[in-house]
Amino acid sequence: MSRGMFITLEGGEGAGKSTNLLFARQWLQRAGHEAVVTREPGGTDLGERVREILLHRHDLHMSAESELLLMFAARAEHIAKVIRPALTAGKIVLCDRFTDASYAYQGGARGIPAERIAMIEQWVQADLRPDLTLLFDVPIVAGRERAGQRSEPDRFERENNDFFQRVRETYLARAAREPQRIRVIDASQALSKVEQAIADILEEAMHGR
Ligand code: Z5A
């Protein structure tokens, strides 16, 4: 069987990943491709429980290392149960966040050296890397304003602007190093323009498939 395609969506808070994931799924559907839609942390029973601990258990204080390892514990399960089986079956996987987020949040923002993250990435993922990553980039304040419309902030949303600035810079630095895979989309534009940018990138990616 042919290997499918692994597409991830990344970005800071309120950048529009969830909104645009729906658009990407519909675009693929119209082009005749069924996509498996999933998210991190999460995507499996175990992953969703780990997500609950990571995002919503404000009474639990954890070190950056514990946070990183919990992300990868959820990821190992997600890869084994959802991502690899779908790719092996030739499907497209659309995933809301993946390992670039670990580099941005636990690496750039919390300070864990990238080389250490790379070791765990290699162990947990072996040769699995996204084929394409859509990075939604928006200035911190605008993103936080959009996200702030929601009720209770999660554990990450309680961090300050400097934290989110480091997240943004790490994402952009990774995109500069891997411009073929990580495509930066200006998410401060009107939604219709963002959608057009996604459609153009998907068109190109599907063409080369
Ligand atoms: N995390 C980590 O630390 N390490 C890891 O390895 C992984 C994750 C995998 C959960 O992620 C947290 O996990 C995340 C990083 C950490 N924490 N943070 N921050 P999440 O993806 O579930 O949560 P999130 O980043 O907070 O997502 P979000 O705030 O829901 O943002 P979004 O999905 O990018 O945005 P949205 O919900 O699509 O849009 C927000 C609002 O803006 C909404 O009302 C939209 O209608 C509006 N919007 C979107 N686009 C536009 C445009 N273009 N114009 C105007 N309005 C717009």
Main features:
209 residues; alpha/beta; Rossmann fold; 5-stranded parallel beta sheet; 56% helix; globular; binds ligand Z5A
Structure commentary:
- This protein is an alpha/beta fold.
- Helices cover 56% and strands 13% of the residues.
- The chain has helices at residues 17-30, 45-56, 64-88, 99-109, 114-125, 140-147, 161-177, 191-207; strands at residues 5-11, 35-39, 92-96, 132-137, 182-186.
- Strands 2-3-1-4-5 form a five-stranded parallel sheet, sandwiched between helices.
- The mean pLDDT is 95.
- Bound molecules: ligand Z5A.
- Ligand Z5A is lined by residues 11, 13-19, 40-41, 55, 71, 96-97, 101-102, 105-106, 146-147, 149, 156-157, 187, 191, 194.
SSE layout:
Elements: E1 5-11, H1 17-30, E2 35-39, H2 45-56, H3 64-88, E3 92-96, H4 99-109, H5 114-125, E4 132-137, H6 140-147, H7 161-177, E5 182-186, H8 191-207
Parallel strand pairs: 1-3, 1-4, 2-3, 4-5
Helix pairs in contact: 1-8, 2-3, 3-5, 4-7
Bound molecules: ligand Z5A.
In short:
The chain is α/β, with parallel strands linked by helices and 209 residues long.
Q: Could you say which overall geometry the principal axes of the C-alpha atoms support? A: globular
Molecules bound to protein: ligand Z5A
List the secondary-structure elements in sequence, H or E: EHEHHEHHEHHEH
Largest sheet: 5 strands, parallel
Helix fraction? 55-70%
Number of discrete helical segments: 8
